[in-house]
């Protein structure tokens, strides 16, 4: 049996809002490009959630999940995906990037 990945409502909302933000603030000229960028994050999660590149979450972020993945979107942006896992079932609890106000706590 393969892994099962579930997104908490807040994580799903973050990804949905990301598409709007990227398009509205003109990071991408086409909404489709913003969707593709966001889907690359989801694809990374799907392909790597069960790999040994996951790390234990720092103390202040344990409330979002015991583990996290780091995804490098480009030279300036890293995404942090916080999750919990049990019996090959994963729940994505929180997603943020290094531009977030919460990021300094990850240093």
Summarize the structure.
The chain has helices at residues 9-24, 31-48; strands at residues 4-7, 55-56, 67-72, 78-86, 89-97. The chain has 107 residues and is an alpha+beta fold. The chain is globular, with a radius of gyration of 14 Å.
Chart the SSEs and their pairings.
Layout: E1 4-7, H1 9-24, H2 31-48, E2 55-56, E3 67-72, E4 78-86, E5 89-97
Parallel strand pairs: 1-5
Antiparallel strand pairs: 2-3, 3-4, 4-5
Strand order of the largest sheet: 1-5-4-3-2
- Estimate the helix proportion, in percent: 25-40%
- N-to-C span: 36 Å
Gyration radius (Cα, Å) is: 14 Å
Walkthrough of the structure:
This protein has 107 residues and is α+β, with helices and mostly antiparallel strands. It contains 2 helices and 5 strands. It has helices at 9-24, 31-48, and strands spanning 4-7, 55-56, 67-72, 78-86, 89-97. A hairpin with a 5-residue loop joins strand 3 (67-72) and strand 4 (78-86). Helix 1 runs antiparallel to helix 2. It is globular, with a radius of gyration of 14 Å.
């Amino acid at each position: 049996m393969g892994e099962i990945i579930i997104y908490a409502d807040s994580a799903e909302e973050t990804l949905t809002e990301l598409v709007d933000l990227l398009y509205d603030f003109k990071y991408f000229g086409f909404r489709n490009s913003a969707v593709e960028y966001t889907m690359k994050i989801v694809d990374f999660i799907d392909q790597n959630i069960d790999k040994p590149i996951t790390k234990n979450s720092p103390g202040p972020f344990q409330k979002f999940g015991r583990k996290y993945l780091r995804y490098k979107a480009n030279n300036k942006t890293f995404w942090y995906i916080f999750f919990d896992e049990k019996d090959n079932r994963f729940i994505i609890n929180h997603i943020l990037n290094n531009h977030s106000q919460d990021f300094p706590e990850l240093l």
